[in-house]
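Subject: Protein record for review, amino acid sequence with backbone structure tokens
Why sent: The fold of this protein is of interest and is recorded here as tokens.
Notation: Tokens come from a learned vocabulary of local backbone shapes, not from coordinates.
Attached in line: The record itself begins immediately under this heading.
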Amino acid sequence: MRAPEVNLSELSLHPRRVTDRLESSPTRSVRIRRREKDKPDLLLVTAERAEQAAAGFSATVTILAELMRRSAETAALAAEALPAAFPWARYLSAEEVRTFVGELAETLERAESLGNPVPFAALVARWKQTAETHADPELAEILRRNDHNGQNSGHLS
């Protein structure tokens, strides 16, 4: 479900109208479009909805991390399920997928404790870069050559 959208100027000129849209939105949010190409849009969301989302995310991360710590079988299932969330992960080797899953659980837990999603986004970006390299035969050959020469270990940094 998408949030309704308004221009930034509408928020400054008609804040009550935008607030009414926010409160009547099923997502309890409004996307604020910015005209500057180099600046991302903003999201206005009710505090209650943001707190609910944060609580749900925190509980999910805690459960996932704890399950993976307790069971190698759960970690293996997570590795099998990973391509559902990240289809490009199919270009990674089985060993790389297992490593990615372990790093993902640990990074999610740490990022959630900070209340900062940037470490998660950075980890995913690095692994996606590795998958893109494997997907390109020329780059994959360079990576294999470097790996055999001891110049590469794991995913791209």
Notes: Helices lie at 8-13, 15-24, 47-70, 72-85, 94-114, 118-135, 137-148. The two ends are 35 Å apart (CA to CA). The mean pLDDT is 90.
